[in-house]
Amino acid sequence: MSRNKKIDEYDASTVRQLVGLESLKKRPGMYIGSTSVTGVNTCLREVVDNSIDEFVSGVGDLIEINIYNGKDKIHPKFWTSVEDHGRGIPVGPHAEWKNEDGTPQDTLTGLLTRLHCGGKFGDENSAFKNGSSGLHGIGAKCITALSKQMIATVKRYGKIYQQKFGDCKVLSPVEIIGECDENDTGTKIEYILNDEVFKQTLIPNDLAMETLFDEITALNAGLKIVYNNEITKIKSEFYHPDGIKSYVNKITKDKELIIENPILIEGIEELEDKNIKVNICFTYDNAEKSHETFKTFANNVNTHDGGYHLKGFREALASNLNEFAIENKMINSNLEMKYIMENIYCIISVMLPEAEFEGQTKEKLGNQEVETAIKNIMKNSFNVFKKKNKEDLKLLVEKAIKSKQIDEAIRKARNAARASQKMSSKRNSLPGKLTDCSGKYGYREIYICEGDSAGGAIKLGRFPKFQAVLPLRGKILNTEKSNIEQMAKSETIQNIVSSIGTGIGVKFDIKKIRYDKIIIATDADVDGSHIRILLLTLFYKYMKPIIEEGYVYASVPPLFRLEFKDKTYKYVKDDIELNEAKKKYANKIENVSRFKGLTRSLALIPFSTLPVGL
Predict the structure, then answer these.
(1) What is the SS3 assignment for 222?
(2) Catalytic residue among 61, 206, 363, 525
(3) Catalytic annotation present for 8
(4) Which residues pair with 275 in a beta bridge?
């Protein structure tokens, strides 16, 4: 195909404008998300939202929703109705709107067919000054565009008005079909969705609707919603007389809570000529698995991604709780946000005119003034709590302190594991001070001695094939009073661990031990005993199986040498044996020599007679 031919295919005749409801029907996903069950849910939600806005405005505390199964021979299957007892949609000719024939258009007709029109735009003429979820003037017009048939029935001023629509068209004018009591007002929207648009299903998801209505009635204390789906045989009533407090109690009823009653914060703040109503309720549990459970709403819209109302609450709670804790000498410096928020259950609801949401699906609140309003209200509320709920606030601070302590313990354990890994990873890199066995297989033993002098003496008398020597430099680290991070910095500890080969702590593996005996060869004096104890402490605390399975021994070098007059001699282990020998041999002893260390004793004693035992 030539380039000119392609150009000819795209000319003025191919360009068109979608007018009115036609745009909704042509691209429904732009307005309701999809034409799956999610879209069906949205259509019902749009109608219910109008009824909720009536309640918020102070009229109508009951919303009745019915989905019929067609068995009553009056309503076809999938017929859906939403009825409220609000003020009723306005009826009568609108001063600015015209029908196609030029005659004045009824307000009811315009509200259900004209895009971007309504009474919820928040200006001084708005009928919804307390806040509404409606932003764009679309809402229930989705039903007009996407249903095969829709009927709007309105009760106002003692009369009952009705108008019918179908497939984007007005099927009848507004008609008076009866009379009612002047105090009996409200709106009833009935519809059956177009199965050519909604090919998957024509009924909403019950669980999604029940969750929604449970939340909505909690956010609007005193509102009752009755939901009846004859097709799925689900009938539920939703009513929270105590508002979000009863909802918080409901979602935490099986939890072990830190405070007996949730904390409720309510108030109205006037900012930038707006009255911002704030309703917050929160509590904490003792769950082992930490969490932060927030549900945030703005004008009854679930803002899943939070926004300035969530930001304001988090910062205000952290600031006020830290201030309280410092005043009561519970802490010296501020606790981090994450410790204060750990294991919280919190519902935040704000109502305001001209709400600004980020994104088409209203996932995040963008009104920055809400942050200031919440902080001001929280500050005032905490001044009261400090007097009336002081013990509860102390429990919350103690919870945060404990969270910090646990976090620090986990961090130390993690660092310890890394240190253990560091030391264990050196198993294949033997220390330079180790004089290892020449034999690679068969029986092997290692002497751990104090100092290079003792090490040199043992090397002179050892059997190189199966005896290894590791001299230490001074007293080793006291591992009972040290953590594994400090141990990882000790060259002496690293030399011992890498020589033995098992690793330590979580990385310990007895199968990788390099010797059949580990012999502690220290001096017979107090210092030698201390070093032996320090080595045994290391083994017991971090390498316990080498003791339990009989790998660890201690040499017992003599402390004294007795020389007799007949030129013979005898070695004794300590002062106790020396005193016994003096009594026993009395005048036979010519001289007593005291060894200053293992080096001296080994120089005078044949190595084969060095006593080794448990």
Answers:
(1) coil
(2) 525
(3) no
(4) 270
The helix-helix angle for 369-388 and 308-327 (nearest 10°) equals 30
Tell me, yes or no, if 106 is annotated catalytic. Answer: no
Q: Which residue has the higher pLDDT, 567 or 533?
A: 533
Please, how many CA atoms are within 13 Å of residue 589, restricted to the half-sphere of its CB? 18
Closest CA to 270 of 347, 352, 348: 352
Please confirm, yes or no, whether 525 is among the known catalytic residues: yes
d(CA 613, CA 533): 16
Measuring CA to CA, which residue among 471, 491, 318 is closest to residue 400?
318
pLDDT 10s digits, 212-261: 999 999 999 999 999 999 999 999 999 999 999 999 999 999 999 999 99
The arithmetic mean of pLDDT across residues 151-175, rounded, is 95
Catalytic: which of 53, 54, 436, 450?
450
Structure tokens at 494: 């690293």
Concerning whether 575 is annotated as a catalytic residue, the answer is no
Catalytic residue among 523, 574, 580, 590: 523
Contact 300, 220 (CB under 8 A): yes
Residues 6+ apart with CB under 8 A from 487: 419, 423, 477, 479, 493, 504, 542
Burial (CB < 10 A; 0-12, 13-18, 19+), residue 563, is middle
- From CA 32, how far away is CA 134, in angstroms rounded? 14
Are residues 146 and 43 in contact, defined by beta-carbon separation less than 8 angstroms?
A: yes
How far, in whole angstroms, is CA 265 from its chain's centroid?
23
469's tokens: 């020597």
* Pairing between β-strand 467-472 and β-strand 445-450 as defined by DSSP bridges: parallel
CA 164 to chain centre: 50
Low-confidence winner among 160-164, 321-325, 488-492 (lowest mean pLDDT): 488-492
Q: Strand (E) positions, 432-537?
A: 445-450, 467-472, 517-521
Give the three-state DSSP class for 162: strand
List, as own/partner pairs, every contact residues 155-158 make where C-beta atoms lie below 8 angstroms and the sequence separation is at least 24, other chains included: 155/88, 155/180, 155/184, 155/185, 155/186, 155/187, 156/87, 156/88, 156/90, 156/91, 156/185, 157/182, 158/182
Q: For residue 308, which of 247, 358, 245 has the smallest C-alpha distance?
A: 358
Q: How many CB atoms lie within 10 A of CB 269?
A: 20
Give the separation between CA 262 and CA 248, rounded to whole angstroms.
7
